[in-house]
Specification:
This is Gliding motility lipoprotein GldH. This protein is mainly β. It has one helix and ten strands.
Length: 167
């Protein structure tokens, strides 16, 4: 009887947790073992439900205290179903001037939800079909021409699509 009560409680907590994220359309992470090589591209395939709704798009990152930079440069490429490609170089603030890492989390792993599309103007997936999102880092150290070959401290890279909140 106690076993069934625990199972029911766990199921209820899971349902509540999932239902609290009603804006989520797509949310997937890929792990980065040890370090993120500058030539490694993390790809996500998404097939949006429609081509008329507005969406917010995010790059999600999990990082540890081993991440030693104040910012992060990413190259994010979106390949449309019919071949059109848009490529953006994005910069995100990852730490306060004191060096304290930004993001949420109580342990040494922080989670960062970084805007990609939808902040300034609504984003619409104009074509129906499968989109590919490619993400790679473009980090450089001050005064050095070559990029950071192995970026340490990033453990997971994610991509998230949400419907905008109605306020």
């Amino acid at each position: 009887m106690l076993q069934n009560s625990k199972l029911l409680f766990l199921l209820l907590c899971t349902v509540l947790f999932v239902s609290c994220d009603s804006n989520r359309v797509f949310d997937e992470y890929k792990s980065v073992p040890n370090s993120w090589h500058k030539d490694e591209v993390i790809s996500f395939k998404v097939n949006p439900a429609d081509s008329i709704s507005n969406y917010n798009l995010f790059v999600n990152l999990r990082n540890t205290n081993a991440y030693k930079y104040n910012n992060l440069f990413l190259i994010v490429e979106m390949v449309f179903p019919h071949g059109k490609t848009i490529k953006d170089t994005l910069e995100y603030k990852m730490a306060e001037p004191s060096g304290k890492l930004l993001g949420t989390g109580l342990t040494d792993t922080k989670e960062n939800k970084l805007w990609y599309k939808g902040l300034d103007k609504p984003f619409v997936f104009e074509e129906s079909g499968e989109y590919t999102i490619n993400i790679q880092h473009a980090m450089r150290e001050n005064g050095k021409v070559n990029g950071v070959t192995e970026l340490e401290g990033i453990t997971d890279i994610g991509f998230r699509i949400e419907t905008p909140s109605v306020e």
